[in-house]
Write a structure and sequence with these properties.
Elements: E1 3-4, H1 7-19, E2 25-39, H2 42-45, E3 49-51, E4 58-69, E5 79-86, E6 95-102, H3 103-106, H4 109-112, E7 117-119, E8 123-126, E9 131-134, E10 141-155, E11 161-170, E12 176-185, E13 190-197, E14 202-204, E15 206-216, E16 222-224, E17 230-247, E18 252-262, E19 269-286, E20 292-303, E21 306-314, E22 323-330, E23 335-337, E24 351-360, E25 367-370, E26 374-392, E27 396-406, E28 416-419, E29 423-430, E30 436-447, E31 452-455, E32 465-467, E33 478-484, H5 491-496, E34 501-510, E35 521-524, E36 529-538, E37 540-544, E38 547-553, E39 565-576, E40 581-589, E41 595-599, E42 611-612, E43 618-620, E44 622-631, H6 632-635, H7 637-640, E45 643-651, E46 656-658, E47 665-678
Antiparallel strand pairs: 1-2, 2-47, 3-4, 4-36, 5-26, 6-17, 7-16, 8-15, 9-15, 10-13, 10-14, 10-17, 11-12, 11-15, 17-25, 18-24, 19-22, 19-23, 19-26, 20-21, 20-23, 20-24, 26-35, 27-34, 28-37, 29-33, 29-36, 30-31, 30-32, 30-34, 37-46, 38-45, 39-44, 39-47, 40-41, 40-45, 42-43
Length: about 675
Amino acid sequence: MIFKKVNIFIISAMLFIACSREQTSWDVNSTLPLFQTEMSLDNVDTRYLKPTLTDSSYLLNYENLIYRYKINDLQATDTGIDAFFSLRKLKLSDRTIENNITLGQINPLFKILNGQTADIPAQVQSNLEPTDIDASAFFETATLDTGYLDISITNGLPVNISLIVFELTNAGDNTVVALDSFKNINKNGGIAIKTIDLRNKTVTKTLKGTIKKLITEASGGLVLIDASKGINVKLSVRNLRPRNAIAAFPTQNVIDQDEGLTLYMGGAEVKYFKVASGQLRIKVESTIQENMSMVLSLPGAMKDGKPFYQELKMPGSVGNGVATTQQIYDMSGYLLDFRGKDPLTNDTVNTFHQILRVTLDSSGRKLAVSLKDSIKLTYRIEGLKPEYAIGYLGNSLSRTGPKVTDFSLFKGLDGDLKVKDINVSFVLRNSIGTDGRFKLHSLEGENVFTNSKVALSANPLMNDLFVTSPIFQRDKYTETVVDLNPNNSNIKSFLENLPQKLNYDLETEISPNGNVNNYKDFVFDNSRLDVIMRVQAPATFAFGGFVLRDTQGLNLSNIGAMERIKSATLFLDMTNSFPMDFGIEVEMLDNQYKSLGFLNVEPVSGILAGDVDANGYPVKANNSMMVIKLPREKVGMLKTAGYVALKMKVKGNGKMQRLFNTSKLKVKSRIQFEYEARN
């Protein structure tokens, strides 16, 4: 908002115009308030520069993290099982059927003699009438990859059989399934058995059994003729695994695993693993038209006192499609026993016991299945990260550097600074449950404003430093502290360089002496080894060129009648209670913080110091008015200005001065425009 006090001028101008025919002009002033701000050492960072409770002076208390090593980058690699099950592994039921060939069928004469006694002569017969055999209890049809047919012939005749040649064919196309000879079968119950390999055989449900040749001995006297008795043929199939089949498949386990699954842990050997995050993913794809069920058990995975156990029903496929079942189990919160299947007899590491069974649930229906049909199972442990882990964390050596990190204590400050009574410590803070070793190769502080670098030279940091293990409890840690002072290091000159960046090269080693704790090391998800620089000191400094900075936003883009502005004047009313004088620089910036140029500030003597008592405590603030004149040729930058940057540089006297939080530098600003008004 622009405050104009020109009413009296406008009235006078109107009267003047009414009385004159000549063009005239005059000057009008307009003043606009801009911004106000306040700067103190609280603006540096109150986390580090804190007022004391006794006299409100400052106490410097600062920790800067140089490097952090996290062993929780320990992560179990994704692992699992891929199981593939085809019809080649699917079994048909072992079955047996019986069929009788009676004495009357062998020779119709015996039907006439049925019930009588007779002396039966030796006989030789060929190609007896085939007998139908119903094998539908086996399957509709099957081409067998493996399997066996046991043919058992029992002689119920009253005479010995010297030879019987038996042939088994498929009724439809008369292809031979089995052909074999049986010799010397005793009368009245003698048995002979032959096994036929059915590999590559096709067998249908309708079979024909034919006695191709029968040679019997003479009875050697009168025997009772019973035409209903004869030869009993028993057919038994076993271990049938079809290449393709139309059959009713029995209930059976198609996948059955009971074993340990080992995970790679990046060199660590873990006994117990509490899961912070991770999942178990199971996917089953099947083209078989039978339902299945799955049981997954992890006996060594406990949560709320119960082991992990899941049952899952999986529907069969429809037609020629694929039935897919996928399940994801969240493993968060489970404590995994990584000692293997039977830790009492075979204690191992990184291995959990898993039981996985997939069962084909028989419906009794006859289904068409071929070798193209399959069951595919994918079983994956994914993204397993520990809340904590116990075991041997492995010996790992990490060399880090050269690397760069921020040093926030002197962020935004430059100039000359001398410190007094400063206490600096190099701290190794360890919350990893094992011993460690640390070696600092180099540490260099860099002042980005002056491009000056100072390398830290410290005798206590020239050798290896060792850290010890904390107790087994979250957030507990041990500290190894190395104190640095002007007698054992150049820490004073290192800090007085006001570094904003630290360039470091260091190495860390976990378990430098190996598995000395016998698998009792541990790590939590937030366990780490922090390398810290700790600074503590009363804030008593000698200042020279010390700088305070502030940037304020401007919005002067709506200034009208720019062509009529003859000049502008920026006034900065400075109220200073710091015990030191300040020089000031003012820079105009555009909306992208790019410089538009510096402005000339008067008086060049700068900002006067405040008054202090004998103890250096502020008692009176002094005012200084800074004036910045903008002639017509510089007024244009106001239109594009987005910010004004103030840089207050201490005019130090080289003496140690104590700072208090009551020291302030207050700024109020306004801008005055001089317009040229025309009729």
